[in-house]
Design a protein that fits this description.
By secondary structure, the chain is an alpha/beta fold. 42% of the residues lie in helices and 18% in strands.
Length: 513
Amino acid sequence: MTLTGHTAGTNKSGKLEVRSPLDGELLGTLPVHSVDDVLAAVARARRSAEVWGALSFKERRAHLLDYRRELVRRMDDIIDTVHRENGKTRADAAQELLLVLNHLTHAANRAAQLLKPRHVSSGILANYRSRVSYHPYGVIGVIGPWNYPLHTPMGSISYALAAGNAVVFKPSELTPLSGKLLVECAQAAIPIPDLVQLVTGYGDTGAALASAKVDKLAFTGSAPTGRRVMAAAAENLTPVLLELGGKGPAIVTADADLDRAASGVVFGSLMNAGQACISTERAFVVDAVYEEFVGKVVALVRSLKVGRDEQAHYGAMTLERQIDRVREHVREAIEQGARAVVGGLESFKGRFVEPIVLVDVTPTMKVMREETFGPVLPIAKVASAEEAVRLANDSSFGLGSAVFARTGGYELAERLRTGMTSINAVAAFAAIPGLPFGGVGESGFGRIHGDEGILEFVRVKAIAYERFPLPGLGMAFGEPDKQLPQLKQMMSKLYGGSAIDGVSSVLRKLVGR
Ligand code: NAD
């Protein structure tokens, strides 16, 4: 065991030792759950899912608001645990918890209205009443990463619970103590045993959950693991929601407010030491304002402090081997002609990596193509916003993005092939609970947060109710010789004309137009 970093992963025998990336301190020891343990947890969850699913929305809301209260009651413990386990500053941990509370509140409040059964038009089957209703899946498996150990899994857990499901949660092996606190608070607040359960361990425990025939699996992590999870889930046709990595672009146009743009891009690339799936990992700045923008960025970045104390703007790198990857991206970029205008290869100081700003980057460099996941901001000069959009979209990822523009922001945002865009800000979409969160391409599919994020956790039921039989329009055998001409006449009248004029008044009434 090394003393200076996360050693989770070194002891695969049966115990998971959690050490702080800040100083190597042993923070706790948890079990490595086996396949049988995971199956038993899923079986217990099935029973609690029935009890929870049978409650009214009002009752579930009350319990979820108790859960929220419990998280607030234990906030100091939670903030401290996230700080020590993940290495982020206490302020960053507190901000994460605030987002969790905001999302939990939204999910609890919104589910009843959204998931009410609703009637839809019956089209030409006007003798039918047609209803869509929503039912909880049952048991949701949630597998989480380490970079936002509260916010990320709770993006699934809150919404899955609000929709009426039980949850079995496998946190990252690097941050299981933060996950344990989330589960403990749920268990303390909601008097339904095993409604939210924790299973801990490494990838094998996650793989066991992916194969455990849960009713849906919500995975957040890297794209390579996402592929393995999806393959395992496919064996049982378990539906999956995949929230994977990103290579977030930010576009700064000629008419952007450059102070806002510099402040946003710097925050977007360095928040949480750059370890965010929605980090700004590439900035594309239009020629006309490039020099001024870079000047502002450099001044701002030089004023930032990295470390573990209360004055630090961001903290440690959580995963030791990630540091090598970040260094490699920076090294390769410099070797291929990029210039470091702040920091450089000398910025790597053990667990703490000081900010690095690169210019003269080219689209083929790793730092512009692969997820860096570190405090590095590469800035590319582009001739126009048009070119910026083209280069931003030239990526296998498509998660978060940002546009800084006084005019035309919506238009540029709509053209970015990413799940989310903030205009004149970064990452704000993740903090707005009504907005769905998720990606395209290698960033995954499905959505957490928002109405779409609740709908991910329900199965949809369609009911067609025949109110009275209608000859020729019912689901029964009629007179075959008359049926063909009737159907042909109907098609011509209903759909053969150029407009509604061709439809007879009777049929018009039938289709409700
Ligand atoms: P990871 O893929 O290494 O691990 C994620 C989780 O999967 C962990 O709990 C791990 O134990 C588990 N796991 C590993 N192998 C498994 C397997 N075969 N089957 C099932 N589970 C398995 O990711 P990470 O390093 O913990 O997290 C960082 C990644 O997560 C980055 O790529 C980041 O962009 C991404 N991320 C995405 C979002 C999002 O919402 N899109 C949010 C946060 C992080």
